[in-house]
Amino acid sequence: MSDCQSVRAGVLLRELGELERDPILAAHLTTCARCSADVALVRLATAATAEMLNDQLPSAHPPELAQMVIDRAASWHEVRARTWRRASLALPALAITVWVIAVSDRAAPFRSAIGFPDPPYVTTIALQCLSGSDAAGVAGPYLRSGGGTALPGPEGVPSVTLTGERAEVAEAEIAIAKLDGRLGPAAAGACRR
Prior knowledge:
This protein has 193 residues and is mainly α. Helix content is 60%, strand content 8%. It folds into 2 domains: 3-102, no CATH class; 121-188, 2-Layer Sandwich (Ribosomal Protein S8, Chain: A, domain 1), CATH 3.30.1370.120. The protein contains 8 helices and 3 strands; from the N terminus they run ααααααβαββα. Strands 1-3-2 form a 3-stranded antiparallel beta sheet, with helices on one face. 17% of the residues are buried.
């Protein structure tokens, strides 16, 4: 029999003062918060019962009262543990849901419906005819949102990186593709560098 079970049995069979006289049970009560809380509840219930009986403290607490108090405390502990278990399962699920809404392309209509901003769309375009600074100059007017940028690639690498809302970046890509000779009538002839 575990120490917790022997404390519960001791509360039901003995007077509360005898629990502290038993060295094994007294040692367990000092280390086990749950058992010491249960004994304190039984003491409190016994004192409240005596107060209701006009301060006639019974010589021993009624075992039925002790059993009822311990059962209620145990059920309260179970309810609290069940609540924490549910929360420990629900919180990661909620975090994953928020992450999916924030990142997923499929959730874009839902994000806009609840006022959640879309993450910036970023793309890098390899250029054939234009330089990176020329392409950034072409894309600038299309990137009207607050976070829209067009950054030319490093020296010697003909590229441009566009950042902004998806629709604005798509318009800028089309404008750059037309001037770069990859789209429209200019696509028929190769550019000369």
